[in-house]
Design a protein that fits this description.
about 375 residues; single chain; globular; 15 helices; disordered C terminus; two-stranded antiparallel sheet
Length: about 375
Amino acid sequence: MISREQRTPLSEWWWTVDRLLLAAIIALMLAGIILSLAASPPVATRIGLDPFHFFNRHVLFLVPSFIVLIGVSFLSPRQIRRSALLVFAISIVLIVATLLIGPEVKGAKRWITLLGINIQASESAKPAFVVVAAWLFSESARKPEMPATSMAVVLLLMLVSLLVLEPDFGQTMLILMVWGSLFFIAGMRMVWVFGLAATASAGLFTAYLLVPHVAGRIKRFMDPASGDTFQVDTAMESFANGGWFGLGPGEGIAKRSLPDSHTDFVFAVGAEEFGILMCLALLSLFAFIVIRSLSRAYATEDLFSRFAASGLAILFGVQAAINMAVNLHLIPAKGMTLPFISYGGSSMISLAYSVGMLLALTRMRPRTEMDSIGDANSIRSYA
């Protein structure tokens, strides 16, 4: 047991961190292990790998992810700002390098190999960008004379332009939705929010007209007979086959033919083997993490912590909602992972970094510490 009387970094972290939120995140990670064991062996076998190849790597990725999560949760708001700025700058450099020298897979350049490790830089750019944007919005509210909002718009346009060039329209829409939410939370005028929504809609329509890949997905969603909808149809069958209680662990049928059963459609595999009740439990877990984070963010008096925690919670929740909606054929298919459930090293470590910052920002700090943060912010213009 850790005593309250012990003034050590560990004891201070333990008694200030949101332990319920931490427990929910760990429960999500454990659920990911179970669903990875259920969904990944058939995929590995189909492509000639060891049946537990993806499962072993999933568990292996969890180790550094958990270390990153706990380590980042010890940081102060000022350290989070600085780390996010550094991670965002490195991510932008890696995205540019990916566009220049990265391999093209299915018409897109999203991965780059460094020291034998495949990295998707857009994953780490998302949480870092959210924190940097939240810092700029908080500075704009604190110092109206500072052009922080304009800087946030420039960073948004830069990141979105790079993602469109990859192209990765799923991540682009996610970034725009989270940035728009932050823009609204920061108290900006509704005309700007509607303007952003109109610009995003115009961009999507332009992509539909000019990018065959985007047009194909939207057409298949609107009219399944217009193209190949095998994965989505199989996912929908999984929900019907599983019913309320599922067919049982290892008894799923869909995973034997679903190419992306361990990544984009792991939710459907879980529904078939463990039932709709398990899906509702997962949905409740995601909802608890988002709502709990937003309530803790609302309780803090520091504008930066409030905006950043809210943005990270929205990022986490919207990404989960997009993946589940695709599995249920509620929106066109997108390559979006289910947080801590889907297989993917870059995604998992970036998510760990994101929720680590979320835990750090929602810690219950003494008023004197928050006052010192505000004083430092009023003295310095930049982190």
